[in-house]
Amino acid sequence: MKHILMLATGGTIASRETGQGLAPAITSREILGYVPAIGELCRVETMQLMNLDSSNLGPSHWLRMARAIEAHYDRYDGFVVTHGTDTMAYTAAALSYLIQFSPKPIVLTGSQKSICLENTDARMNLYNAFLYAASEGSRGVSLVFDGKVILGTRARKERTKSFNAFSSVDYPEIGVIRDGRLIRYLPALDAKESPDFYHTLEDRVLLLTLIPGMGTEALAALEDSYQAVIL
Fold it and tell me: Which residue among 12, 46, 109, 153 is the active-site one?
């Protein structure tokens, strides 16, 4: 039986009502306790890395996740990261570049509703993430959500309320999970005996949307603040 480490970071999946709206408060062990069937798929240990709304996550947090995976890489057969949906695609892409050619799966998942609610997608998403992580042949960074398995560099959140929140952009889904069965559409990514870990990110990068009438002074104003501007 595979041995999987779950890294919890917060997000809607871990949120409780506070009287002033939802806020991440449910621990990693509590999250796992909502889906006891996962124990039939694999052995699981959990780690609470942080408990934040994903809109507050950025490059420093991506590096922290990558360092945690690197530190525990040899002890486990795979990793599941629970995460808020707003920036999950960014984290999946960042981890894809920080951890390259991984022969073990690194799977991100989350939910549109808290795992403590009755009508939630969280329990199924979490179960499917572990099913994929525990399946032979799974490797590299991917995102599992609403039964889809999406390559880490191709995921995009396109819907804010629907359980079908993420799509694979300009690339097929690499698999789907239906009725507890994984169906692979594409072979697993290339991997090496041990992955390449990277430990730095340049965070002074700006994505700028051009609009009619924008003058060149906009770029000049950014010159001292950013190392790169993507148009």
Answer: 12
What element of type H or E holds 168? strand 166-168
Give the closest residue to 98 by CA, choosing from 26, 24, 201. 201
Contact present, 49 and 7 (Cβ < 8 Å): yes
Residues of the chain with confidence (pLDDT) below 70: none
55: tokens are 């809109």
- d(C-alpha 231, C-alpha 225), whole Å: 16
**DSSP secondary structure of 71-94:** HHGGG-SEEEEE--STTHHHHHHH
Note the pLDDT tens digit of each residue in 133-149: 999 999 999 999 999 99
pLDDT digits (tens, 9 = 90+) for 152-171: 999 999 998 899 999 999 99
12: annotated active-site residue: yes
Identity of the residue numbered 170: D
Q: Which two tokens stand for residue 98?
A: 């920080």
The pLDDT value recorded for residue 91 is: 98
